[in-house]
Amino acid sequence: MLKMLKQLQVQNFKSIFSETVELGQLNVFIGENGSGKSNLLEALALMSAAKQQRLDIEGLYSKGVRVAKPELTFSSFNGLRLKQQIEMSLAFQSEKQLMTIKSVLETEQTDEAVVKWFDSFEQKAQAQEQEEILKHALNISAAEEEKLELIRALSEQRRIEKSALYHPIQNYLIYSLDTKALRGLSFESKKAPLGINGEGLDILLANFSEQELTQLQEYAYFVNWLDEIVLDTDDLMAFSDLKQGKSLSKLYFKDKFMRKKNNIFSAENANEGVLHILFYLALFISHKTPTLFAIDNIESHLNPHLCTALTRVICKLAKQTNKQALITTHNPAILDGLNLNDEDIRLFEIYRNDEGHTKIRRIQLNPESKPMKIKLSELWMRGYLGAISKQF
Asked: 4-172+290-382 has which fold?
């Protein structure tokens, strides 16, 4: 069963001075450029790195965080004293139980670019736990060797309990696709099974189960020219001159409108749209990808009508495969794929108030009103949903 992230609280992180958001299963965030959408996704990534004990530069980059020196990572607003710690809290719903996870992130060097953060809340909690374990062991009548064994057993038990508690957040990533990575021409992210820029798509598809492949094939209609997806796992076509740019991807496509003897081409030559669609479908279908993740600018390289259809599909897939996603977009067509009458599907406006603080407002339909005859995309474009500039 999916452990659902229900609430995220963030204080003193970049443009987010203090804010709380109540999440659903699939969450879409809209707002002006610079309103703080990506900052919200990064706050969750920062906490994920903390609970993996990966708060170094490499650990943060691997999650999709735009790393800056601490003075720029802490909220810095006119008239407010600079506070040198970031506070975050998560609430997960597991069956009927609500579990809370906290972090307080600090660093000893605030004016340098390359620093390592630490979670002072976690450090204090661990010290307190060890103190309680030692106290318990010292208060029992037993030989020294038995006491040491008890300390080891209790410490291991606490470690396992914490690992289970942190598991839903530890694999969280922010996916921000790059066409070169999808084509197999760039390998900046080493994350498996999918890199944050789209790396490893061919490998993930090659390891799909029959059930996952069948599920993927249901959506072949998204690409009207597609005859077949070919995965050259043995690299037999490596020297067939189909990859002039020396792509390492083993992903190929057959075009049903082309001559049979000349209708196959590599990911290197495929249009961007099919690669992006395939990535998002694989991300939501695969049981190997994270259960909780974010997608920044999901609409990139996609036709508006396709954006709407894809959104409807990933809303359905999220429930089928127990995925929870936070998604940002600037394309109104994405909104037309959302059913806001479903409590699990949520739309938010992110904006900055008069002090410059990032604020979050959930956009909901009035349950008592008649069904709308106007699309959400039109409401956004007309300014009724907010999330647009008032300067022009």
From this structure: Rossmann fold (3.40.50)
